[in-house]
Structure formats: C-alpha cells, structure tokens
Amino acid sequence: MPVAKDNQFWDALMENKVAKKLIKKHKCKAKCENIDDLANRYEVSKQEVEKVFKIFQLMDDDGSGTISSSEVAKMLNELGIDVSPKVVQAVMRSSDVSGDGQIDFEEFLAAVTSKIKLSTVKADVQLMLSKIDNNPEKVISAEELVVAWSETVSTNITVKEACALIQQADTQGRGKATIHEFITMCQTV
C-alpha cells in the first residue's frame, strides 16, 4: 500500500540513526536561509530545520534546490525501501504541494514536520487510551475521551470534536468506539 510505504519512507528518513549516517556520508556545504522564520512557521526548533535541510541537500543530487521523483527513488533505495513507481508517486503526492513535480525545501520541511507532529499525536493518543482501559474492546464515549484527552494530551478538545473523532473511529455506527477502533483510526491517519 503506497500510504504505508510513504510513511515508512518518512519514518526511516527522520530516524536519528539513518539521518546521522546519511549526513556523515555526504558533506553538505550550503546553509539553510531563514531558519528562524521556518522554525517559527513550522513550530520546530532551529536544529530540526537544519537537520531537515541537510537531509534535503543529500536528496537533491543535482543541486537544483528541488527534489525530483528520481531523487526520491534513489533515497528510497538507499534507505532499503521498495522503490516501485507507486511508492515514489505516494511520496511525491504527499509532499509536492505546488504540483510542479518537484519538492522544494519548504514543501519537504512541511512534510517532515507534519510527520513528526503526527507521530507525537499518535503516541499521545495511545498513551491516553491506555489510561482509559487496557481492554481494547472497551467502548468509550465522547465524554470519556474529552476527560482522558485533557489528562494526557497537551491540548484540549471539545465534546463536539470528541464526537467527530468517535464517529470517525466507530465502525459499527453505535455512537461509541472501542479503544481498538480508535487506535486503528489513528494509525490510518
């Protein structure tokens, strides 16, 4: 499934060991401009912007300032991930916001930071759900979700937002979702 491979690509790319290995392997000379602005806009540290920039440079073999589908394929291969055209298309589709067939640095940074944030949210949600009950078949209501969310996650949600999440997770149309359904829904995001 391309989406899973797309996530596998981003996860492998940002894994500390892989990133460090790739950065050591290639010497990056250019500096990222507007680090402060980008860090603020994408709500990440300056160090994270610099790290992502170095990885971007590694992928930009021709020095064009953009990453092409062939450069994505090459990086997928280096990461040991399936290099089928569908996987490359999934990565390009998830990142190329402008639709020009190339991924510029800001598009790359946006994709990476969204994956980092999503990973954090998923971990928070799983922790939150484990606090509700260890029984994956336990049914939770929107109200229970609001309480558990406020005790675990750094943001609050309203009952209306919780209802929308429950509705999305509820595979049987009963207005409630099991913890298993909720985790499954979170993993498919």
Explain the overall architecture.
Pfam families: EF-hand_7, EF-hand_8. GO terms for molecular function: calcium ion binding. Residues 31-54 form a coiled coil. This protein is mainly alpha-helical and 189 residues long. The chain folds into two domains: 2-116, Recoverin, domain 1 (Orthogonal Bundle), CATH 1.10.238.10; 133-187, Recoverin, domain 1 (Orthogonal Bundle), CATH 1.10.238. The protein is built from ten helices and four strands; from the N terminus they run H-H-H-H-E-H-H-E-H-E-H-H-E-H. The chain has helices at residues 2-14, 16-25, 35-42, 46-59, 69-78, 85-95, 105-132, 142-152, 159-169, 179-187, and strands at residues 66-67, 103-104, 139-140, 177-178. The strands form two sheets. The protein has a two-stranded antiparallel ribbon. Helix 7 (105-132) packs antiparallel against helix 10. The radius of gyration is 19 Å and the shape is elongated.
Rg, Å, rounded: 19 Å
- What proportion strand? under 5%
Overall geometry: elongated
**SS field, number of helical segments:** 10
Strand order of the largest sheet: 1-2
Euclidean distance between termini CA atoms: 14 Å
Average pLDDT, to the nearest integer?
78
User: What is the architecture of the largest domain at the second tier of CATH?
Assistant: Orthogonal Bundle
Provide the low-confidence segments as ranges.
none
Structural class by SSE content: mainly alpha
In CATH, the topology of the largest domain is named Recoverin, domain 1
What's the main sheet like?
2 strands, antiparallel
